[in-house]
Amino acid sequence: MPLFFMIGGFFVKPLTRRALPHYLKTKIWPQLKQYFAYGFALITVSFFVERHTVTFSLRYVARLLYGGTLLNGYLSAFWFMTVYLASLVLFSLIKGYVSSVAIQAGIMLALFGLGTSYPNATAIFGFPLPGNLDLVLLAMPYMFIGWWFFHYARPLIHWHWLGLAALGLFVLLYVLQASGQLNFLLFMKSHHLTDPLLALLVPPALALGIFVLAQALSHISLSRGLVALGAPPYRSCICIRQSATAWKNSSHRIWSYGWLPVSYCHIAC
Fold first, then answer.
1. Verdict on whether the full-model pTM lies above 0.90
2. Range of 188's domain?
3. Are 206 and 170 in contact (CB under 8 A)?
4. For residues 26 and 211, what is the distance between their CA atoms, to the nearest angstrom?
5. Which of the residues in the chain have pLDDT under 50?
6. Model confidence pLDDT, tens digit, residues 57-94
7. Which residues, in sequence order, are CB contacts of 205 under 8 Å at separation 6+?
8. With contact defined as beta carbons under 8 Å apart, do 239 and 189 qualify?
């Protein structure tokens, strides 16, 4: 899931309090309408297909309205949208009032440290926060990393050895984890992570490898087929849609092949 937030951070622009109402109306509210529309649609379909009771379905409606960790089953992935939109607004406001990239980085490190200093919202408040909103403490730093990468480190996607290095890192971590020599877990929805430092460093490193691989795939003969295969199931995902548009406008093609990172991360979440 950190990959989604990194992609979503690519195109964040400064936002001020004066422009906030218009931003909420034109950028955030349409996505929230999709959140509720798709959620209600899934609940309705499940009601008829799986023959749930009215009480069961109404409970799922209540969970959809509250969001966050209460979402499970066919609504499990919906937690991402509320955390993403909240993180997008807050990160945009920070950029609107803090122009120094170095200070922004310091703020993000502090937020990530705060976000990893407690087990979960229930441990502090006695109940999960609506929409998992405390996860913005983890999501915003990932968004900042994505924003920094897009604006300052895009040439790295042409360094193919970085893709091999990321693959080697993945294999090493897998072997260490499987052998019991490493305990590295990162489940954002449940706010469960076992190593804050690895949680900060490993996802960007692996994401960079995915970016490099996606860019390399754009030059193979099957690239058009891969785009056709991967695009339809995920067109409604806001961050991928924004990514494809922005990279197209920038005369880059890497995010036309978003099927690669999205497919595996969608399964993982």
1. no
2. 2-268
3. yes
4. 30
5. 233-269
6. 999 999 999 998 888 888 888 999 999 999 999 999 99
7. 166, 169
8. no
Q: pLDDT value at position 232?
A: 53
Angle at 266 between CA 59 and CA 156, to 5 degrees: 145
Give Rg (Cα) of the chain: 19
Helix axes 101-115, 79-97, angle to 10 degrees: 140
Half-sphere exposure in the Cβ direction for 8 (13 Å, CA) = 28
Domains of the chain: total: 1
Alpha-carbon distance 226 to 256, whole Å?
A: 9
Q: Give the distance between the most distant pair of CA atoms in the chain.
A: 55
CB atoms under 10 Å from CB of 74, counted, come to 14
| Cα–Cα dist 46/61, whole Å | 12
CA distances in angstroms from 180 to 166, 174, 186, 193, 200, listed in the order given: 21, 10, 16, 16, 21
User: How far apart are the C-alpha atoms of 150 and 231, rounded to whole Å?
Assistant: 22
Q: By the 8 A CB rule, do 42 and 57 touch?
A: no
Q: Using the structure block, give the residue that is written with the tokens 């399964």.
A: 267
In whole angstroms, give the CA distance from residue 109 to residue 124: 21
Q: CA-to-CA distance for 106 and 101, rounded, in angstroms?
A: 9
